[in-house]
Amino acid sequence: MANRWGILAALSFARVGMGFQFQTVAATAPLLSDRLGFDKAQIGWLIGLYLLPGVLVALPGGMLGARFGDKRMALIGLAMMILGGIGFAASESIGGASVARAVMGVGAVLMNVLLFKMTTEEGEVYLIDEIAGLQSLSDRNGNTLLVSSNGVVWTNSVIGGPAIGITFE
Fold first, then answer.
1. Which residue did the predictor score with more confidence, 104 or 119?
2. What is the pTM of this model?
3. Distance of alpha carbon 104 from its chain centroid, rounded?
4. What is the CA radius of gyration of the chain?
């Protein structure tokens, strides 16, 4: 059981990293505007580009996980997030920043799809609500909607506060 909680801690840490990476453009918007000359529309484009790959990658990402292994594909997603972050930091044009941001977004979608699959796949039914609650704590918005064999689980948390879960069966 300790190994499962260690895995859950690692997965939660990865989700916290996704939250930080999602917020990088908004947090550095004044810097991007002053030093690189990006206007508000370009900054908005970069913010949206992080989540845009989810439209195209979510379903194939799950199928790739089933074919090549969830852990392997999640690690590939993590590598894409890291490489995209390095590329974003090194870019000096909107084109380079867009490509890097899209790479980060594809990696984040792979991670997001596969992390929840990995947390619920091996857990006992009675642990799924707890796992969803703990994952909710590591989400940047604190909200989680999870469909599992235990029903539909919705959790909501406040940073540093308890997770409140409701299960609809």
1. 104
2. 0.70
3. 10
4. 17
In which band, very low, low, confident or very high, does the pLDDT at 155 lie, cut at 50, 70 and 90? Answer: low
Residues 77 and 92 in one domain: yes
* Same-domain pairing of 82 and 162: no
CA–CA separation, 119 vs 109, rounded Å?
Answer: 16
Identify whether the C-beta of residue 129 lies closer than 8 Å to the C-beta of residue 115.
Answer: no
Q: Are residues 116 and 131 in the same domain?
A: no
Instruction: Please write down the long-range contacts of 18-21, taking CB distance under 8 Å and 24 or more positions apart.
Output: 18/81, 18/108, 18/111, 18/112, 18/140, 19/138, 19/139, 19/140, 21/50, 21/81, 21/85, 21/104, 21/108
Do 95 and 157 sit in the same domain of this protein?
no
| Upper half-sphere CA count for residue 162 (Cβ side, 13 Å) | 2
pLDDT band at residue 1 using 50, 70 and 90 as cut-offs: very low
User: What local confidence, expressed as pLDDT, does residue 162 receive?
Assistant: 47
Query: Can you give the residue range of the structural domain that contains 154?
Result: 126-169
E strand segments, the chain = 143-148, 151-157, 163-168
Q: Number of folded domains in the chain?
A: 2
3-class DSSP state for residue 38? coil
92 & 132 share domain: no
Q: Are residues 149 and 78 in the same domain?
A: no
117 in the same domain as 133: no
